[in-house]
Design goal:
Radius of gyration: 18 Å
Order of helices and strands: EEEHEHEHHHEHEHEEH
CATH superfamily: P-loop containing nucleotide triphosphate hydrolases
Shape: globular
Helix content: 25-40%
Number of helices: 8
Strand content: 15-25%
Length: 240
């Protein structure tokens, strides 16, 4: 699997009788900048949780460059930075304490210094010693992003990272993600977003999901995926 960081083969996810994601195979390779697009309840968040190792596929398997196939790869967490809908932060701790604690779990050298650097990059130094439970949703979102970036993951999985952010915070985050996605050729970015033009600025390929089914969109047209999005949605609806 040269340059392939995550290889998922025939993975699907069902919850009882409800199918959230139909079987699909997807390779995440070095340098990939992939947007995952689609309407609500399409399976986008389910896919990211599978790729992160936080959820077990109902069928198929996932493997990394250093391991063989398994239904659930614990080692995925070592190479993946994941931001979901939940912050996964401890409300009684400060942002810096949360990040430092996470850093120790991941074996990050000098986690306090690394955490301070990331909080500064995201414009959060003034909040570094506040209790997380007292922070606004937008600030909390940025702290969670700092935690996801902490161990310099090979694959960064972001589920609606701009949700709840004001204009300035979104601008800071987009600039940071732009630096990451365009300069780290040995890493990969997978971004779930409803902002088609914003996603096109950060990624160069897209996967469209609808009712658990999928199709590849390819590069954006004129800096946006609106046209390809509509075409993919119409095609999948006709095939149902």
């Amino acid at each position: 699997m040269t340059n392939v960081l995550i290889d998922s083969v025939g993975i699907s996810k069902s919850f009882g009788e409800r199918t959230a994601l139909l079987p699909m195979s997807l390779k995440i390779s070095c340098g990939d900048r992939l947007a995952v697009l689609g309407p609500n309840s399409a399976g986008k968040s389910t896919l990211l949780r599978l790729l992160s190792g936080l959820s077990r596929p109902s069928t198929g398997y996932i493997e990394t460059a250093s391991t063989g196939p398994s239904r659930l790869r614990k080692d995925l967490r070592g190479i993946v930075g994941y931001l979901g809908h939940s912050s996964m932060l401890y409300p009684a701790l400060s942002p810096l304490e949360n990040i430092e604690f996470s850093g120790r779990l991941y074996g990050v050298p000098h986690p306090k210094e690394r955490g301070t650097f990331l909080l500064n990059e995201l414009g959060l130094l003034e909040f570094k010693n506040e209790r997380v439970g007292t922070l606004s949703s937008g600030v909390l979102r940025r702290v969670a992003i700092a935690r996801a970036l902490l161990h310099e993951p090979k694959v960064l999985l972001l589920d609606e990272p701009f949700a709840g952010l004001d204009y300035r915070a979104a601008e800071i985050l987009e600039n940071l993600l732009s630096q990451i996605s365009h300069s780290y050729n040995e890493r990969a970015l997978v971004l779930v977003s409803h902002d088609l033009s914003g996603a096109a600025r950060l990624t160069n390929n897209a996967l469209f999901l609808s009712k658990g089914n999928h199709t590849v969109l390819g590069p954006p047209t004129k800096g946006d995926w609106s046209e390809a999005y509509r075409h993919a949605q119409n095609s999948l609806e006709k095939s149902e």
